[in-house]
């Protein structure tokens, strides 16, 4: 029985027409078993291996379709194959004579979709089971045809021209793949005030499919910036070296940011700094940044030479945003205020002085009768009185003094 069926398959295979089907990887495919009725006994095979046998409404799984697998959905009249992969390419038979040659087409970039500038890449539009199939590539910038029609295109030394969406066209299929070409990012010109700290930027916009294996900073005028290098010999990428009094390197694992920090920048630190990052495969990227050191802004100088109160008023205000004009106006306003305050103060002080004088005069006129009374109470001669006045050193209370001094004379 089994041999008979195999012979039947073989005969059908030779006689029956075989259809070539091209499908994108990841999609589902349904193939028909022509001329069957629901009650028929149908067997599905893939490359001579049984997927399933269906009879009397029962399904018997074959060796390549174990229970738990959702790959196939066999029926009497059709077979659905889900999520096509390259390995699903090949010949499918149904026992009633239908035969299909399935080619799964997949497109991808090697070694990955995000690659550093000037590295190499391979574009693949793989037509499984049909290596000779002509492929048309549409390039990113203008969507025009690329000159090569191979399933594998070698791109050398990538530039931004290769960045973007590539389309592979084959047998009526169209598959888009995106190639991202990245460079090192920096700020071309960095300006800093003398004495301040500054960050020299150097980073990748995203993680690339090529590993960073090394890198460094260099400046002819400041060899210290090379005191650490990027190192990937431990499991993580990190700066290997020492901070100096001038240059600070980030501690710990790095990913895409290779900034360094210069501390207390001096005029002699100004100049060109070059950041280099090296990828596996040997590609090196560099980024240049030029540091300019300025000796304090004019705004700062002006304010520091101004007098105290004005600075205090101005300080918390928007020092940098204010234009010179406005700033002068504020200074003039503050000075006028100060003048007014001073005048008012003078007037007040004068008034107070007048009042004080008046009161002093009043006090005197009140004290004289008092002292007179005081002296009147004592019963002393002119001489005694003089003596008391002479020996009168203050701190002793008056009653005591009077008693003490008067006693010996009594
Ligand atoms: C591929 O890209 C083209 C152009 O952007 C677009 O028209 C087409 O729909 C895309 N195809 C797929 C399958 O995404
Ligand atoms: C360098 O200085 C930074 C900031 O002070 C610090 O976090 C880091 O650990 C230092 N790195 C080394 C290697 O000493």
Return the CATH architecture of the largest domain.
Answer: Sandwich
Ligands in the model, by name, code or SMILES, are: 2-acetamido-2-deoxy-beta-D-glucopyranose
- CATH fold-type name of the largest domain: Immunoglobulin-like
Number of beta strands: 24
Helix percentage: 10-25%
- Domain count: the total is 3
In short:
The chain contains six helices and 24 strands. It is of the alpha+beta class.
Structural description of this entry:
This protein has 410 residues and is an alpha+beta fold. It has 3 domains: 4-103, Immunoglobulins (Immunoglobulin-like, Sandwich), CATH 2.60.40; 111-182, Sandwich (Immunoglobulin-like), CATH 2.60.40; 189-307, Immunoglobulin-like (Sandwich). It contains 6 helices and 24 strands. It has helices at 2-15, 298-305, 308-314, 324-377, 382-391, 398-406; strands spanning 18-24, 29-32, 42-46, 49-55, 58-61, 72-74, 78-81, 90-94, 99-110, 114-116, 121-127, 136-138, 152-155, 164-170, 173-182, 189-193, 198-200, 212-218, 228-231, 238-241, 247-249, 260-262, 271-279, 284-294. The strands form 5 sheets. Strands 1, 3, 4, 5, 8, 9, 11 and 13 form an 8-stranded mixed sheet that branches. The chain has a 6-stranded mixed sheet with strand order 16-24-23-18-19-20, with no helix packed on it. Helix 3 (308-314) crosses helix 4. The longest helix is centred in the last third of the chain and has 54 residues, at 324-377. The protein is elongated. The N and C termini lie far apart (163 Å). Bound molecules: 2-acetamido-2-deoxy-beta-D-glucopyranose (2 copies). One 2-acetamido-2-deoxy-beta-D-glucopyranose (NAG) binds at residues 167, 174, 176.
């Amino acid at each position: 029985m089994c041999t008979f069926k195999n012979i039947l398959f073989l005969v059908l295979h030779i006689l029956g027409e075989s259809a070539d089907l091209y499908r994108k990887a990841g999609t589902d495919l349904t193939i028909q078993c022509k001329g069957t009725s629901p009650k028929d006994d149908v067997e599905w095979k893939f490359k001579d291996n049984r997927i399933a046998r269906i009879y009397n409404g029962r399904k018997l799984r074959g060796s390549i379709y174990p229970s738990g697998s959702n790959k196939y959905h066999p029926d009497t009249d059709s077979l659905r194959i889900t999520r096509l992969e390259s390995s699903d390419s090949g010949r499918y038979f149904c026992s009633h004579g239908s035969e299909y040659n399935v080619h799964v087409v997949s497109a991808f970039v090697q070694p990955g979709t995000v690659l550093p500038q000037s590295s190499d890449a391979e574009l693949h539009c793989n037509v499984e089971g049909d290596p000779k199939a002509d492929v048309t590539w549409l390039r990113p910038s203008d969507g025009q045809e690329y000159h090569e029609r191979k399933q594998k295109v070698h791109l050398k030394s990538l530039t931004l021209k290769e960045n973007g969406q590539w389309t592979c066209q084959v047998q009526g299929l169209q598959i888009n793949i995106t190639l991202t070409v990245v460079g090192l990012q920096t700020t071309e010109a960095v300006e800093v005030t003398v004495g301040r700290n500054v960050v020299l930027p150097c980073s990748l916009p995203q993680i690339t499919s090529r590993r960073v294996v090394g890198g460094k900073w260099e400046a002819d005028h400041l060899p210290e910036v090379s005191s650490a290098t990027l190192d990937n010999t431990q499991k993580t990428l990190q700066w290997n070296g020492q901070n100096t009094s001038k240059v600070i390197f980030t501690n710990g694992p790095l990913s895409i940011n290779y900034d360094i920090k210069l501390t207390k920048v001096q005029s002699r630190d100004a100049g060109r700094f070059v950041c280099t990052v090296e990828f596996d495969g040997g590609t090196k990227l560099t980024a240049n940044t030029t540091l300019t050191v300025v000796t304090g802004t004019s705004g700062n100088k002006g304010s520091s030479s101004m007098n105290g109160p004005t600075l205090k008023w101005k300080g918390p205000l928007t020092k940098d945003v204010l234009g010179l004009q406005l700033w002068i106006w504020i200074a003039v306003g503050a000075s006028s205020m100060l003048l007014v305050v001073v005048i008012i103060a003078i007037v007040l002080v004068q008034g107070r002085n007048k009042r004080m004088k008046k009161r002093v005069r009043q006090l005197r006129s009140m004290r004289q009768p008092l002292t007179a009374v005081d002296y009147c109470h004592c019963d002393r001669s002119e001489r005694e009185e003089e003596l008391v006045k002479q020996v009168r050193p203050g701190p002793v209370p008056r009653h005591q003094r009077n008693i003490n001094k008067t006693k010996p004379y009594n």
